[in-house]
Design brief:
Length: 263
């Protein structure tokens, strides 16, 4: 299936490692023009070099902190100045630490509200004028299956990320007439640095090996394994394409059947 993503302009945040980098690799392989950002300049430059090896598209890196409104505006302006448009925005940010409610500080609540919700709001607001003008766009959020089914020891994610569901629905209602589609991808456990970090915390708490925790994650769904990043990336590629032209306002969990609810 030709998704016709070649030469599309794709802006991806949090793309120096983990799921963000995997998504960027997917678009680079489709020969899209990809702008990646992250806070860590060294890792960002390494990611740019890796992506450029396997793409005929232009791969650009821009250091930015999505907790900063000025950085967000500068990032979007940089992309528009270079390409004149933004076809696809993918909002991704680092996940909150594994904690129970009684252990979360007020500062952590504020920080991860800013990082995992407010940054998505600001990024969307920065690209929407250009997408409305061009009468085409895709805004895709990367959140978590925790918006569908709360996960033990991840109370910050359980509380903050469902706001992305409301943002997805609200924006899809407002932007549909401009052919700008907005969707939210909610992965379960994926083999990334983030999941390894969570597994290390749990392994320490339970006094068991990290590999045993990873195995337990996989046993929590009918497929009996956690996802490969490419499996999540493929969904982003599809949703960004014209093939997904009638899908908007959806929070889609891709979790191997982890969520047990009917809806």
């Amino acid at each position: 299936m030709d998704l016709k993503l070649k030469n599309k302009v794709v802006l991806i945040t949090g793309a120096s490692r983990g799921m963000g980098k995997a998504i960027a690799q997917g678009f680079a392989a489709e020969d899209a023009n990809v702008v990646i950002c992250a806070r860590n300049a060294e890792r960002l430059q390494q990611a740019q070099a890796e992506l450029s090896k396997n793409s005929d598209g232009e791969i650009l890196a821009r250091q930015a902190d999505v907790e900063s409104l000025s950085d967000i505006r500068s990032l979007v302006e940089f992309t528009l100045d270079r390409f004149g448009r933004i076809d696809v925005l993918i909002c991704n940010s680092g996940g909150p630490p594994a904690k129970y409610f009684v252990d979360v500080t007020d500062e952590e609540w504020q920080r991860y509200f800013n990082l995992n919700l407010l940054s998505f709001i600001r990024l969307s607001g920065a690209v929407i004028p250009a997408m409305k003008k061009q009468k085409w766009g895709r805004i895709l959020f990367l959140s978590s299956v925790s918006v569908k089914q709360p996960i033990d020891n991840l109370v910050i994610s359980n509380v903050v990320r469902p706001g992305v569901v409301g943002l997805t629905k609200s924006l899809s209602n407002e932007l549909g007439k401009y052919n700008v589609l907005v969707n939210n991808v909610c992965p379960g456990y994926v083999r990334t640095d983030r999941v390894l970090e969570l597994a290390e915390v749990q392994a320490k708490q339970e006094g068991i090996p990290v590999d045993a925790v990873i195995e337990k994650y996989g046993q929590n769904n009918p497929l009996g394994r956690i996802a490969d990043p490419r499996e999540i990336t493929d969904l982003f590629l599809f949703l960004a394409s014209e093939r997904a032209s009638y899908i908007t306002g959806v929070s889609l969990h891709i979790d191997g059947g982890f969520v047990k609810g009917v809806f």
